[in-house]
Amino acid sequence: MTAGDRILTLDTVRGVAVMGILLLNIIAFSMPAPAYFNPAAYGGSTGADLAVWLANFTFFDGKMRGLFSFLFGASMLLVIDRAEARGESAARVHYARMVWLLVFGLVHMWLIWWGDILSHYALIGMIAFLFRKMRVSQMIGLGIALLFVELVATSFIPITVTMAQADPGNKDLADALRALNKGFGTPPAAWITEQIALHRGSWWSIAVHRFKDMQIMPVLGLVQFGWETLAYMLFGMAGLRSGMLTGSWDRARYLKWAATGLGIALPVYALIAAWIVSQQFSLLAVTAGVMPATVPFRPLAIVGWASLLILLMRPGAFLTTRVAAAGRMAFSNYLGTGLICTTLFYGYGLGWFGEMSRAEVYLVVFAVWAGMLIWSKPWLDRFAYGPLEWLWRSLSRGQLQPICRIAHT
Known about the structure:
mainly alpha, two-stranded antiparallel sheet, 18 helices, transmembrane helix
């Protein structure tokens, strides 16, 4: 389904993905880091707070990020194909975009928010270019192989927890256990208090601490999560080549993949969540449950979500139009979300960090969603690109690009 040079299915699914990512990122914006994976660490793990965690883990956790990666791979390949069709150097166009995306990502990570994904996408995108000529079956096969590597890599985390708990006298393992507690477990109350005080402080104190912790994160991210991200980008490239993400499949085929993907993955996620709760969010249960146990099933959920969204979209309908506009401006909306949420939660803004429960922070999510849906379409009615999309495009091409719709036309 196309409109001009746009593919409506890509824009719509991307719009849902950029909105859906905030369902998980809001915890990282508003609470100490381990709360992202472990509700017992902070934010509440009973009642409505537990219900929110269960719903997020089962339906959205990892799936919206994976869907975003899926769409990134498809969009990246689309840009490459169009550059080649114009007779341009696909490598030059692609790597210029990735270099500038890396710059945007590093600025975002070091100056605004530690949870940036753009720098990671830029580095993985540089690698994904090498596989652009593969057949669909080869892309899928390589993606599955990469997910196996990710499964092995993430399995070392719960294995380390088990070894450290079995040998408490081992200093190296004890240090590793303390570090894992700060990412997945329930750290000491004093450490939580320090984190809250830090994030309610000045921009400078937060930025200095963030740079100290995150200066080599792009490289570490390649080793820890790059296998999975590259796999999802390859699946997205295959989705574009096969016609899935262009809306070319028949309705029965989308229905089959939605039912199969979600029908297998979501019950498994629910069982994993129930097991984690039964283990009272122990460090071993959380690291095993949220990391290796989900790797084989997340791709099914991603494909299921993409298929369901394509089935549900209605070209020309109010909601589809608004969501697609948010997807066309995913870059601006993603970075805008970082600016808005850090201003709300960090000390140089309203200082709400650590004040809201897990359930309460979703009031902010709904408000930000409303903002995305309200502003994206009117902007695109007047301008050809979102503001940051235009800046990225201009920097990548080495000259200012026309942005007003009349000039663009």
